[in-house]
Write a structure and sequence with these properties.
Elements: H1 3-8, E1 12-14, H2 22-25, H3 30-33, E2 41-44, E3 47-49, E4 52-54, E5 57-61, E6 65-72, E7 75-82, E8 86-94, E9 97-106, E10 109-118, H4 122-134, H5 146-149, H6 160-168, E11 176-182, E12 185-192, E13 195-202, E14 205-210, E15 213-218, E16 228-235, E17 239-247, E18 252-259, E19 264-270, H7 274-290
Antiparallel strand pairs: 1-2, 2-5, 3-4, 5-6, 6-7, 8-9, 8-16, 9-10, 11-14, 12-13, 14-15, 15-16, 17-18, 18-19
Protein backbone atom coordinates (compact mmCIF):
# COMPACT_ATOMS: atom_id res chain seq x y z
CA UNK A 1 0.00 0.00 0.00
CA UNK A 2 1.38 3.42 -0.94
CA UNK A 3 2.01 6.04 1.73
CA UNK A 4 -0.81 8.18 0.27
CA UNK A 5 -3.32 5.34 0.57
CA UNK A 6 -2.07 4.53 4.05
CA UNK A 7 -2.58 8.11 5.25
CA UNK A 8 -6.04 8.17 3.66
CA UNK A 9 -7.05 5.39 6.06
CA UNK A 10 -6.03 7.38 9.14
CA UNK A 11 -8.65 9.16 11.29
CA UNK A 12 -8.73 12.93 10.99
CA UNK A 13 -10.23 15.80 12.93
CA UNK A 14 -13.16 17.51 11.17
CA UNK A 15 -13.16 21.27 11.74
CA UNK A 16 -16.13 22.34 9.62
CA UNK A 17 -19.23 21.04 7.86
CA UNK A 18 -17.44 21.33 4.52
CA UNK A 19 -14.81 18.79 5.62
CA UNK A 20 -17.40 16.19 6.60
CA UNK A 21 -18.10 13.39 4.05
CA UNK A 22 -21.50 13.98 2.43
CA UNK A 23 -23.12 10.81 3.78
CA UNK A 24 -22.76 11.92 7.39
CA UNK A 25 -24.23 15.38 6.86
CA UNK A 26 -27.63 13.69 6.51
CA UNK A 27 -27.43 12.23 10.01
CA UNK A 28 -25.98 15.06 12.10
CA UNK A 29 -28.38 17.83 13.07
CA UNK A 30 -27.91 21.16 11.27
CA UNK A 31 -27.79 22.97 14.60
CA UNK A 32 -24.62 21.03 15.41
CA UNK A 33 -22.94 21.59 12.07
CA UNK A 34 -23.85 25.27 11.79
CA UNK A 35 -22.82 26.32 15.27
CA UNK A 36 -20.00 28.91 15.42
CA UNK A 37 -18.25 26.65 17.94
CA UNK A 38 -17.97 23.53 15.80
CA UNK A 39 -17.86 20.44 18.05
CA UNK A 40 -14.80 18.27 18.44
CA UNK A 41 -15.34 15.70 15.70
CA UNK A 42 -13.25 12.84 14.28
CA UNK A 43 -13.85 11.00 11.02
CA UNK A 44 -12.64 7.39 10.92
CA UNK A 45 -12.42 6.04 7.33
CA UNK A 46 -13.36 2.44 6.57
CA UNK A 47 -10.41 0.19 7.30
CA UNK A 48 -9.31 -3.35 7.98
CA UNK A 49 -6.94 -4.81 10.55
CA UNK A 50 -6.03 -8.40 9.71
CA UNK A 51 -9.23 -10.27 8.86
CA UNK A 52 -11.40 -7.57 10.44
CA UNK A 53 -13.14 -4.88 8.43
CA UNK A 54 -14.50 -1.66 9.88
CA UNK A 55 -17.12 0.77 8.64
CA UNK A 56 -16.66 4.50 8.20
CA UNK A 57 -17.64 6.40 11.32
CA UNK A 58 -17.89 9.88 12.78
CA UNK A 59 -17.57 10.43 16.52
CA UNK A 60 -18.09 13.81 18.15
CA UNK A 61 -18.65 15.57 21.46
CA UNK A 62 -21.84 17.55 21.93
CA UNK A 63 -23.52 18.88 25.07
CA UNK A 64 -21.67 16.54 27.44
CA UNK A 65 -22.39 13.51 25.28
CA UNK A 66 -20.27 11.24 23.09
CA UNK A 67 -22.00 10.60 19.77
CA UNK A 68 -21.37 7.91 17.14
CA UNK A 69 -22.60 7.86 13.56
CA UNK A 70 -21.51 4.67 11.80
CA UNK A 71 -22.13 4.01 8.12
CA UNK A 72 -23.53 0.51 7.60
CA UNK A 73 -24.09 -0.01 3.88
CA UNK A 74 -26.49 2.81 2.96
CA UNK A 75 -27.82 3.41 6.44
CA UNK A 76 -26.47 4.96 9.61
CA UNK A 77 -26.31 3.49 13.09
CA UNK A 78 -26.45 6.27 15.68
CA UNK A 79 -25.52 5.98 19.35
CA UNK A 80 -25.43 8.74 21.95
CA UNK A 81 -23.76 8.23 25.33
CA UNK A 82 -24.40 11.08 27.80
CA UNK A 83 -21.29 11.38 29.95
CA UNK A 84 -23.23 10.62 33.14
CA UNK A 85 -24.41 7.34 31.56
CA UNK A 86 -20.90 6.07 30.76
CA UNK A 87 -19.78 3.25 33.07
CA UNK A 88 -16.23 2.85 31.77
CA UNK A 89 -13.79 3.82 29.05
CA UNK A 90 -11.32 1.29 27.66
CA UNK A 91 -8.36 2.41 25.56
CA UNK A 92 -5.93 -0.13 24.15
CA UNK A 93 -2.83 -0.02 21.98
CA UNK A 94 -0.75 -2.79 20.41
CA UNK A 95 1.85 -1.47 17.99
CA UNK A 96 -0.03 0.31 15.15
CA UNK A 97 -3.45 -1.00 16.17
CA UNK A 98 -5.45 0.91 18.79
CA UNK A 99 -9.03 0.86 19.96
CA UNK A 100 -11.52 2.66 22.15
CA UNK A 101 -14.41 0.94 23.90
CA UNK A 102 -17.22 2.76 25.67
CA UNK A 103 -19.45 0.96 28.15
CA UNK A 104 -22.60 2.83 29.08
CA UNK A 105 -26.33 2.83 29.56
CA UNK A 106 -28.81 3.47 26.74
CA UNK A 107 -32.54 2.95 27.35
CA UNK A 108 -31.72 1.40 30.75
CA UNK A 109 -29.61 -1.34 29.16
CA UNK A 110 -25.80 -1.80 29.15
CA UNK A 111 -24.39 -0.99 25.70
CA UNK A 112 -20.75 -1.38 24.61
CA UNK A 113 -19.33 0.37 21.56
CA UNK A 114 -15.85 -0.51 20.34
CA UNK A 115 -13.95 0.80 17.34
CA UNK A 116 -10.37 0.40 16.13
CA UNK A 117 -8.03 2.85 14.46
CA UNK A 118 -4.40 3.40 13.49
CA UNK A 119 -2.27 4.34 16.49
CA UNK A 120 -1.00 7.46 14.70
CA UNK A 121 -4.34 9.02 15.66
CA UNK A 122 -4.14 8.15 19.35
CA UNK A 123 -3.99 11.82 20.42
CA UNK A 124 -7.35 12.46 18.73
CA UNK A 125 -8.89 9.75 20.90
CA UNK A 126 -7.03 10.92 24.00
CA UNK A 127 -8.91 14.22 23.65
CA UNK A 128 -12.21 12.32 23.76
CA UNK A 129 -11.13 10.26 26.77
CA UNK A 130 -9.98 13.43 28.52
CA UNK A 131 -13.33 15.16 27.89
CA UNK A 132 -15.23 12.26 29.47
CA UNK A 133 -12.89 11.90 32.46
CA UNK A 134 -12.91 15.64 33.16
CA UNK A 135 -16.71 15.49 33.48
CA UNK A 136 -16.41 13.55 36.77
CA UNK A 137 -12.93 14.61 37.95
CA UNK A 138 -12.63 18.22 39.06
CA UNK A 139 -9.21 19.84 39.35
CA UNK A 140 -7.78 23.28 38.72
CA UNK A 141 -4.27 21.87 38.35
CA UNK A 142 -2.62 21.45 34.97
CA UNK A 143 0.09 18.94 35.95
CA UNK A 144 0.23 15.68 37.90
CA UNK A 145 2.06 16.29 41.18
CA UNK A 146 5.53 14.74 41.45
CA UNK A 147 4.66 13.13 44.79
CA UNK A 148 1.81 11.22 43.17
CA UNK A 149 4.00 9.91 40.36
CA UNK A 150 6.59 8.77 42.90
CA UNK A 151 4.03 6.38 44.41
CA UNK A 152 4.56 4.17 41.34
CA UNK A 153 8.34 3.93 41.73
CA UNK A 154 8.20 0.62 43.62
CA UNK A 155 6.83 -1.00 40.46
CA UNK A 156 10.21 -0.57 38.74
CA UNK A 157 11.27 -3.83 40.40
CA UNK A 158 8.07 -5.59 39.31
CA UNK A 159 7.45 -4.29 35.81
CA UNK A 160 8.96 -1.05 34.51
CA UNK A 161 6.34 -0.70 31.78
CA UNK A 162 3.51 -0.68 34.31
CA UNK A 163 5.36 1.86 36.45
CA UNK A 164 5.66 4.20 33.47
CA UNK A 165 2.11 3.75 32.17
CA UNK A 166 0.71 3.97 35.69
CA UNK A 167 2.22 7.41 36.14
CA UNK A 168 0.78 8.44 32.77
CA UNK A 169 -2.72 7.28 33.67
CA UNK A 170 -3.28 10.02 36.27
CA UNK A 171 -5.07 13.24 35.50
CA UNK A 172 -3.77 16.56 36.90
CA UNK A 173 -4.77 16.76 40.54
CA UNK A 174 -5.25 13.00 40.81
CA UNK A 175 -4.49 11.54 44.24
CA UNK A 176 -3.50 7.87 44.48
CA UNK A 177 -5.14 6.26 47.52
CA UNK A 178 -4.31 2.60 46.97
CA UNK A 179 -2.76 0.25 44.40
CA UNK A 180 -2.64 -3.50 43.84
CA UNK A 181 -0.83 -5.52 41.20
CA UNK A 182 -1.31 -9.05 39.91
CA UNK A 183 1.55 -10.49 37.88
CA UNK A 184 0.86 -12.69 34.86
CA UNK A 185 -0.86 -15.97 35.80
CA UNK A 186 0.33 -19.07 33.96
CA UNK A 187 -0.68 -22.72 34.03
CA UNK A 188 1.34 -25.76 33.08
CA UNK A 189 -0.36 -27.38 30.10
CA UNK A 190 2.19 -29.86 28.80
CA UNK A 191 5.50 -31.53 29.55
CA UNK A 192 7.75 -32.31 26.61
CA UNK A 193 11.12 -34.04 27.14
CA UNK A 194 11.04 -33.10 30.79
CA UNK A 195 10.29 -29.44 30.14
CA UNK A 196 7.08 -27.69 31.12
CA UNK A 197 5.06 -25.69 28.62
CA UNK A 198 2.91 -22.95 30.13
CA UNK A 199 -0.14 -21.07 28.93
CA UNK A 200 -1.13 -17.60 30.12
CA UNK A 201 -4.39 -17.76 32.06
CA UNK A 202 -4.57 -14.04 32.81
CA UNK A 203 -2.32 -11.13 31.82
CA UNK A 204 -0.64 -8.85 34.34
CA UNK A 205 -2.84 -6.05 35.64
CA UNK A 206 -2.50 -3.04 37.92
CA UNK A 207 -5.41 -1.47 39.82
CA UNK A 208 -5.16 2.16 40.93
CA UNK A 209 -7.65 3.79 43.29
CA UNK A 210 -7.88 7.58 43.17
CA UNK A 211 -10.39 9.92 44.77
CA UNK A 212 -12.79 9.67 41.83
CA UNK A 213 -11.69 6.67 39.74
CA UNK A 214 -10.80 3.03 39.57
CA UNK A 215 -8.02 2.91 36.96
CA UNK A 216 -7.12 -0.50 35.55
CA UNK A 217 -4.03 -1.20 33.44
CA UNK A 218 -3.66 -4.59 31.77
CA UNK A 219 -1.33 -6.35 29.42
CA UNK A 220 -2.98 -7.56 26.24
CA UNK A 221 -3.72 -11.28 25.99
CA UNK A 222 -3.01 -11.77 22.29
CA UNK A 223 0.65 -12.76 22.44
CA UNK A 224 1.89 -9.17 21.98
CA UNK A 225 1.71 -8.10 25.64
CA UNK A 226 5.22 -6.63 25.63
CA UNK A 227 4.17 -4.22 22.87
CA UNK A 228 0.81 -3.06 24.19
CA UNK A 229 -1.26 -1.80 27.10
CA UNK A 230 -4.97 -1.54 27.91
CA UNK A 231 -6.33 1.26 30.12
CA UNK A 232 -9.78 1.13 31.71
CA UNK A 233 -11.16 4.18 33.51
CA UNK A 234 -14.16 3.62 35.82
CA UNK A 235 -15.78 6.44 37.81
CA UNK A 236 -16.21 5.27 41.41
CA UNK A 237 -19.83 6.41 41.32
CA UNK A 238 -20.55 3.73 38.69
CA UNK A 239 -19.39 0.82 40.88
CA UNK A 240 -22.35 -0.57 42.81
CA UNK A 241 -20.92 -3.72 44.33
CA UNK A 242 -17.98 -6.14 44.34
CA UNK A 243 -17.96 -9.93 44.44
CA UNK A 244 -15.16 -12.47 44.83
CA UNK A 245 -15.67 -15.87 43.20
CA UNK A 246 -13.28 -18.66 44.26
CA UNK A 247 -11.77 -20.91 41.56
CA UNK A 248 -10.35 -23.82 43.59
CA UNK A 249 -8.96 -25.81 40.67
CA UNK A 250 -6.14 -23.34 39.98
CA UNK A 251 -5.73 -21.52 43.33
CA UNK A 252 -7.25 -18.26 42.06
CA UNK A 253 -10.34 -16.13 42.53
CA UNK A 254 -12.24 -13.75 40.30
CA UNK A 255 -12.98 -10.19 41.40
CA UNK A 256 -16.20 -8.90 39.85
CA UNK A 257 -16.92 -5.19 39.75
CA UNK A 258 -20.67 -4.76 39.42
CA UNK A 259 -21.44 -1.55 37.57
CA UNK A 260 -24.79 0.15 37.01
CA UNK A 261 -27.51 -1.71 35.12
CA UNK A 262 -25.84 -5.12 35.44
CA UNK A 263 -22.67 -4.18 33.59
CA UNK A 264 -19.58 -5.92 34.95
CA UNK A 265 -15.78 -6.01 34.80
CA UNK A 266 -13.87 -9.13 35.93
CA UNK A 267 -10.28 -9.63 37.08
CA UNK A 268 -8.42 -12.82 38.00
CA UNK A 269 -6.17 -12.94 41.07
CA UNK A 270 -4.06 -15.60 42.73
CA UNK A 271 -5.17 -16.48 46.25
CA UNK A 272 -1.91 -15.14 47.68
CA UNK A 273 -3.15 -11.62 46.81
CA UNK A 274 -6.36 -11.85 48.86
CA UNK A 275 -5.08 -9.52 51.60
CA UNK A 276 -4.03 -6.88 49.05
CA UNK A 277 -7.40 -7.09 47.33
CA UNK A 278 -9.27 -6.74 50.64
CA UNK A 279 -7.21 -3.67 51.60
CA UNK A 280 -7.88 -2.10 48.20
CA UNK A 281 -11.63 -2.81 48.27
CA UNK A 282 -11.98 -1.53 51.85
CA UNK A 283 -10.31 1.73 50.81
CA UNK A 284 -12.54 1.96 47.74
CA UNK A 285 -15.76 1.44 49.69
CA UNK A 286 -14.65 4.00 52.28
CA UNK A 287 -14.01 6.52 49.53
CA UNK A 288 -17.42 5.83 47.98
CA UNK A 289 -19.12 6.39 51.35
CA UNK A 290 -17.26 9.68 51.78
CA UNK A 291 -18.31 10.79 48.32
Amino acid sequence: MSSVKTMASWPKVIKSKEELPQFFTNYIHEEIMDTPNFPYMVFIPPAGFGLKKYNAMVIYLWEKSLCFVEKIKKQADILVFPFEKINFIEKGTVLLNSWLKIGGIIDDKPVHKKFEFNTVAIEYMNNIVEAIRSSYISSSLTLVEKSEKEKFDYLSKVNYKFMSYGKGSLRPGGKVIQMMVQTEIKEERLRVFGKSLFKTVAPMHLSILTEEEYILLQDTSDGFSRYGIVYTYIPLSRIENTLQEPIPENDTFRLCLDLRNKDQIRLLFQNRFRDEVKTFLDAMMMKKVMC
